[in-house]
Amino acid sequence: TLCWHLARRPEGIPGPSDFVLREMPLPPLPRGQVELEVHGLSVDPYMRTRMQPQGYGYLAKWGPGTPLSAWGLARIRRSRGRWREGDWVVGHLPVANRVHVRVPEPDALLPLCLPAATPLPGRWLHEHGMTGFTAWLGMRHYGRPQPGETVLVSAAAGAVGSLAVQLAHRAGARVIASAGSAAKRTWLRERLGVVATLDDRDPEGFAEALAEAAPEGIDLDFESLGGAVFEAAIERLRPCGRVVLCGLISQYHDPEPRRAPPNLARLQAIGGRLVPFVVPGHEPEHWARFQAEMAGLDPVAPLDVLHGLEAWPRAFCGLFTGKGIGKRVVRLGCQ
Ligand code: NDP
After folding, report:
1. Where would I find the Enoyl reductase (ER) domain in this sequence (predicted)?
2. Domains of the chain listed by start with CATH number
3. What is the pLDDT of residues 181-195, one digit of tens each?
4. How far does the centroid of ligand 1 lie from the alpha carbon of residue 224, in Å?
5. Is ipTM beyond 0.95?
6. What is the pTM of this model?
């Protein structure tokens, strides 16, 4: 099968030449394992942190020559274990084409009851998959906005952010959302109905713009960016305000470990709360509830689909230059 490998560690924003497509041999299927046909791959910012030589992360680092892996949607093609052929699963998969992919740890897969006629399997990588789970966990489980509260969501036209906005609305909060382009900010106002939008690619002007949009402060910051945006949000928090720390994408290219905002002490001074979280480990306890709630939400959830395994580097690199709205996926094969 063909699989994308890291050619070299990127410096700054990754480019397509940092990756190389190589043949990966598939030995005969051992007992207890399954062979998968990959149909869709999630394109996620955290993968950039795995390409750094050091720094925090819950998954091992990738060096030159390492095969890449991503959250993906697959169908079981052959089974020599307890999974049934034809079943759909999601899990961590090699960034490989749809021809027979073996997964060494079938227990790491989550089975899906995918209706036969589901038009877009990409949904299982977006609002009903790990992306939706991230937004749900951060907003619904940890952030818990209350009716009338003011919530700030950064990178809000992206995959996690756009769902987080809608979960906050559903809880009765008013949302201020930030994004890096005028088109994205218009979409956030017109399609998602946020009360105000800010430009989070303008670190200098951000604090002032936030103060204007939220003169009485914010109650909750759903933080995905880090840097000046995070700092400005802490400065605007009302007494007992909360931060759910989902990600720090603006720092993922720094070779040094990521930095805390210099005004972190303000959180203590106002009796605030900082809740950093990662998805892995939460699935057993919360997955079923998340699925049930998401099914009732029917969110606006655009998919930004690129086709074919060859498109993977382009899809990944585009995450950092803010190309699409919603969730970026690479679709493979027959879907
Ligand atoms: P997105 O779909 O939001 O794509 C990334 C977006 O971030 C881009 O479109 C761009 O939007 C913005 N962006 C990228 N680089 C910068 C930068 N330097 N400065 C400002 N904006 C930037 O990705 P996801 O929704 O998948 O991820 C959003 C966040 O959630 C990330 O921080 C990610 O690491 C985190 N995450 C955390 C998880 C967890 O378990 N805690 C799980 C999954 C994701 P724009 O055009 O608006 O600038």
Report:
1. 15-330
2. 2-122+301-331 (3.90.180.10), 130-276 (3.40.50.720)
3. 999 999 999 999 999
4. 6
5. yes
6. 0.94
